[in-house]
Specification:
By secondary structure, the protein is an alpha/beta fold. The chain has one domain: Rossmann fold, CATH 3.40.50. The chain has 9 helices and 12 strands. It has helices at 12-23, 40-46, 95-116, 146-162, 186-194, 216-228, 248-259, 283-289, 297-314; strands at 4-7, 28-31, 56-59, 77-80, 120-126, 168-173, 176-177, 201-204, 210-215, 238-240, 244-247, 265-268. The strands form 3 sheets. Strands 3-2-1-4-5-6-10 form a 7-stranded parallel sheet, with helices on both faces. Strands 7-9-11 form a 3-stranded mixed sheet. The chain is globular. The structure holds nicotinamide-adenine-dinucleotide (NAD).
């Protein structure tokens, strides 16, 4: 039986994806090195719903130091999500980790997939490849952060390996939120700055920056559809956006309304590499994958908040 290989399975999106693939009856092989960039215990708990499944196995290894060809079989699908995400940490010496875990790891995954006759690789790219070009009529790949550059390089590697016959689909995810969101991301930080405790939200800039927010279950749905769509190798990347545009200030108000609490905020200067706005163009994704994001920002935030409260109360 062929398998679904999920790299980055213990991460935010990878754990949801693994869970959904198991629900669909797939045999799932997770790969994750539990990178201590954020707490590995959080990653353990991300996986708690899948580790009991007999159809799930896990390699706790760094992709760079393992032999992927020993795992991959012809016909497998690889969902390649493992990466060093995060725009701010990619500046300065942080770029070495972006290059290593994004560019080098991705090249290794593509090479092994080609060698082993994998059916398709679905690659998690990012809206960060657009940089500040989001509002242009013709959006272009023009990253404004080292992280965005690393993802753009991965997309170019995808083109190169597609040229050698490997079926690769690139998904440009737009600001993903929901239960288990990475601790460095805004919604997670906002809820923690509202819940009792000492955590304060570092508000970079004046809160007018707008994002296209995408609920994690909608991301997972598009990703699985991309793996199973009938098309010949699609070279055009898919924008995967939730159809919700909100400013950070609007999200802050919504978080205060949902929690009934006042946020503890530390004002900070705007951050380099953060575009003022991100906008997904999803017509191609919707038409090709017969997909549409269905979760409203309020619904998604409520689910996010419920799961965060649960994890806080179970850890105290
Ligand atoms: N979360 C978002 O809003 C968002 C937006 C755009 C793109 N993406 C992309 O989606 C993917 C998943 O993001 P996420 O938010 O779930 O991040 P995450 O950090 O929660 O998950 C990534 C996982 O990859 C693992 N990993 C990293 N390097 C590895 C290596 N060398 N070998 C094995 N495992 C390794 C980490 O331990 C981690 O568990 C990433 O590729 C990210 O760039 C995320």
């Amino acid at each position: 039986m062929s398998s679904s290989i999920v790299t980055g399975a213990a991460g935010f999106i990878g754990s949801h994806l693994s869970e959904q693939l198991l629900k669909l009856g797939e045999n799932v092989v997770g790969i994750d090195n539990f990178d201590p960039w954020y707490n590995p215990k959080t990653k353990e708990s991300n996986l708690s719903a899948v580790t009991t499944s007999e159809s799930f196995s896990l390699f706790r290894e760094n992709i760079l130091s393992m032999d992927l060809t020993e795992i991959l079989e012809p016909g497998d699908v690889i969902y390649h999500l493992a990466a060093r995400p995060g725009v701010q940490d990619s500046w300065g010496s942080g770029f070495a980790a972006s290059v290593e875990n994004n560019v080098l790891v991705t090249q290794k995954v593509f090479e092994a997939a080609l060698t082993c006759g994998v059916r398709r690789v679905v690659f998690a790219s990012s809206s960060s490849v657009y940089g500040a070009s989001a509002t242009n009529e013709m959006k272009s790949v023009a990253p404004i952060s080292p992280y965005g550059v690393s993802k753009a390089a991965c997309e170019q590697l995808a083109d190169v390996y597609r040229g050698r016959g490997l079926d690769i689909v690139a998904m440009r995810y737009f600001t993903v939120y929901g239960p288990r969101q990475r601790p460095d991301m805004a919604m997670n930080r906002l809820f923690r700055a509202a819940l009792p405790g000492s955590f304060r939200f570092p508000l970079r800039g004046n809160g007018s920056q707008r994002r296209e927010f995408t609920f994690v279950k909608d991301i997972v749905d598009a990703t699985i559809r991309a793996a199973n769509s009938n098309l010949e190798s699609v070279s055009e990347p898919f924008d995967v956006g939730g159809g919700i545009s909100a400013s950070l200030g609007e999200v802050m108000s919504l978080v205060e309304e949902i929690t009934g609490m006042t946020l503890r905020i530390d004002p900070e200067p705007s951050a380099a590499g953060d575009p003022l706005i991100t906008v997904a163009t999803t017509e191609f994704t919707e038409k090709t994958l017969n997909w549409k994001a269905t979760t409203s920002l309020r619904e998604g935030l409520l689910e996010h908040y419920d799961s965060l409260r649960e994890s806080v109360s179970s850890s105290t």
